[in-house]
Request: fold
Amino acid sequence: MLNFNSTIKEEKIFGDIKIAEVEPIIKINLRSKKREFSKKIGKILSILPPTEANTSSGNEGYNLLWLSPDEWLVYSNNKKQSLKEQIDLEDRLFDEISKLNQGAVTNVSDHWVMINFKGNKIYDLLSKSCPFNFNEFKRKKGSVTQTLFNHIDVILHNRDNNELNLFVRRSFSEDLWLWINDSARFI
Amino acid sequence: MFIINCPYCGERDQSEFSCGGEAHIERPKQPTELSDDQWAEYLFMRKNIKGIQFERWNHAHGCRKWFNVVRDTSNDKIHAVYKMGERPPLK
Reply:
């Protein structure tokens, strides 16, 4: 993972909504169509990749998000994980999957910025510029969706009741952050 | 604006998708044996009918998978959605 300078340096509170970037955490993209893949991931992360659409699986250490029938995103829950631990995990996944032609492992830690949303009105804020229907999503803990938010591609992960993590590409993160700050004032 | 039922993700707004044009156009088996006119016909000419049309769509801002849609172009009513490689449900 590179020593990047985050574009988002602050934590904001707007009435009921609390927004903050969570970093540095490791994020790894996994792609595979092989049967052995699930077993290998289960062995390394102690989580099986979800096969049901728009869902996730997780344990104390990691979350595994369904992105498409042959693509998943792993991210860590632990902000205090050392760089060595992160590199070890990536190497292990790479050796067990990519090197053995079981799929593709890509470290996307610097590609995605993760923003945490907490509060009663987070879905009011998202609904301001999101074509997605959140009725089902907000009821089901662990739901995942990829959609557009203010015309920007995002991945949303429902962490808990009124708490979610949003992933946005780094180059779009500042723009989205400014838009969120502007919109959240009127919620 | 209309809703498309992605065969992988479920119902989503049309703004998450991009249309890839007419579906089920077969690539000629021997392109070198075709005349320029025949090749141009394959490459560029599309039906663009008013009525029920078979189209390819991509869930560009979601799962990024391609699939087929049977859509009535006159009123945007979607009659069927099916995965790539599957047989069209309507004729």
Q: What stands out?
A: The two ends of chain A are 36 Å apart (CA to CA). Chain A has two domains: 10-25+110-187, 26-108. The helical segments of chain A are 36-45, 83-98, 122-127, 135-139, 170-184.
